[in-house]
Amino acid sequence: MSRVLVIGCGGVASVAIQKCCQADEVFTELCIASRTKEKCDALAEKLRGKTKTVLTTAKVDADDVDQLIELINDYKPDLVMNIALPYQDLTIMDACLACGVNYMDTANYEPEDTDDPQWRAIYEKRCKEEGFSAYFDYSWQWAYRKKFEDAGLTALLGCGFDPGVTQAYCAHALKHEFDQIDTIDILDCNGGDHGYAFATNFNPEINLREVSAPGSYWENGHWVEIPPMAIKREYKFDQVGDKDMYLLHHEEIESLAKTIPGVKRIRFFMTFGQSYLDHMRCLEDVGMLSTTPIQYNGQEIVPIQFLKALLPDPASLGPRTKGKTNIGCIFTGVKDGKEKTYYIYNVCDHQECYHEVGSQAISYTTGVPAMCGALMMLTGKWIRPGVYTVEEFDPDPFLEALDKYGLPRSESHDPKLVD
Ligand code: NDP
């Protein structure tokens, strides 16, 4: 028996909500709240009669802490699932603290306005001290640790696939496969084709910011930063085939560098096709990826937000996308005094996801872990006062839930390594 408040009703949230409704013995009551209430109503209507979960909807601007507090006090949930955008992480954490409710999300905080001088001063200091320049990092949310501890509340950060499942794979490798992990390569392959020359698989603004930023990896106790797309490798992915992949900065590297003892190197690679890269480079060159507002015909326009309005809605890619994703981690290290390698990954089929929940696999591979993370919290398995990332909890029940709810793991004890 539990009451859950989900904030956001986009591509990822709609999958997470449908999966919560499949586990209606745990998710007995659920409120879908977002900026555009019509989307919440449409999803609740689609689910009516298919689940025992009692669904309600609400309108909320999650940038406004007072509105959030009013909604949370009114609904009185056991858990708030933040599946809106990373911009809202801090306001929703503040509201959860004010109301005494547990919190979870799928991506770490970044500001909507990267020109905000107050944020920029802290950001520039962090770039110098830490050595990576991504707009997002954990420091903002880790700063809430003491507040959540003192309040006896749990905050679970970044419980999608990557971040999220990839960290559970690391915890699993450490618990069951290795005495010492030396290197981790996280490989995110999307072998899907939606037939458009250019579209993003999740929120375009967040996606394009991430991909157009400098790459970085963790090596021998510090960050190494490189120009965007400067390191390219080819890899043959199970059930997908040969793909080009590029080294990116990714948020879970930051937490894994702290939580996996003695790890020497952590890298993250994502596959991209040539058409995607050509379009992105061109859009960047003409200024369309900028978050700085410009004046046009007497109106203020943020270029990347205007671009988002032109691009296909990621939620609409479901029926068109064919092929599979393959996301996982390759480890090297030592067990019982012997060197060994290990690969754990999930393969997910875009069309199978579409037939089950009406979404493509990127939303599915994020929404299912969000639901499974919530399941861990609501059943008391992942409840500990403080602010935590996924690898800090026991991976076993989480990976079992993923196996059951649509993202089963595959393994290899003799994988090809990435050079
Ligand atoms: P979408 O843009 O599809 O959906 C975002 C939702 O949040 C929309 O319903 C939107 O409302 C709502 N929203 C935005 N701003 C507000 C606000 N101020 N108040 C209330 N609601 C708001 O995004 P996705 O579903 O693609 O992504 C959701 C999250 O998942 C993001 O944080 C993203 O970074 C993360 N993600 C994580 C991954 C992982 O593996 N960990 C992978 C992919 C995504 P409206 O309909 O009005 O626009």
List the helices and strands and how they pair.
Elements: E1 3-7, H1 11-22, E2 29-34, H2 37-47, E3 54-59, H3 65-75, E4 79-82, H4 89-99, E5 102-105, H5 117-130, H6 139-142, H7 145-151, E6 154-157, H8 165-177, E7 180-190, H9 204-211, E8 215-219, E9 222-226, E10 232-237, E11 241-247, H10 251-259, E12 265-271, H11 274-285, E13 294-296, E14 299-301, H12 303-310, E15 324-335, E16 338-349, H13 350-357, H14 361-378, E17 386-389, H15 395-405, E18 410-412
Parallel strand pairs: 1-2, 1-4, 2-3, 4-5, 5-6, 6-17, 7-12
Antiparallel strand pairs: 7-15, 8-9, 8-12, 10-11, 11-12, 13-14, 15-16, 16-18
Helix pairs in contact: 1-14, 3-4, 8-15, 14-15
Domain Saccharopine dehydrogenase NADP binding: 4-156
Pfam families: Sacchrp_dh_C, Sacchrp_dh_NADP
InterPro entries: NAD(P)-bd_dom_sf, Sacchrp_dh-like_C, Sacchrp_dh_NADP-bd
Can you tell me about this structure?
The chain is of the alpha/beta class and 419 residues long. It has a domain at 165-357: Dihydrodipicolinate Reductase, domain 2. The protein has 15 helices and 18 strands. Strand 13 and strand 14 form a beta hairpin. Helix 3 (65-75) crosses helix 4 (89-99), helix 8 (165-177) packs across helix 15 (395-405) and helix 14 (361-378) crosses helix 15.
- The CATH superfamily of the domain at 165-357 turns out to be Dihydrodipicolinate Reductase, domain 2
Helix content: 25-40%
CATH-level-2 architecture of the domain at 165-357: 2-Layer Sandwich
CATH T-level fold name of the domain at 165-357? Dihydrodipicolinate Reductase, domain 2
* Shape designation: globular
Q: Describe the biggest sheet?
A: 9 strands, mixed
Tally the helices. 15
The low-confidence runs, each spanning 5 or more residues with pLDDT under 50, are none
What are the bound molecules?
A: NADPH dihydro-nicotinamide-adenine-dinucleotide phosphate
Taking the alpha carbons of the first and last residues, their distance comes to: 49 Å
Radius of gyration: 20 Å
Q: Mean pLDDT, rounded to whole units?
A: 96
Structural class determined from secondary elements? alpha/beta
The CATH first-level class of the domain at 165-357 comes to Alpha Beta
Organism: Blautia wexlerae
Domain Saccharopine dehydrogenase-like C-terminal: 160-407
Protein name: Saccharopine dehydrogenase family protein
Pfam family, one: Sacchrp_dh_NADP
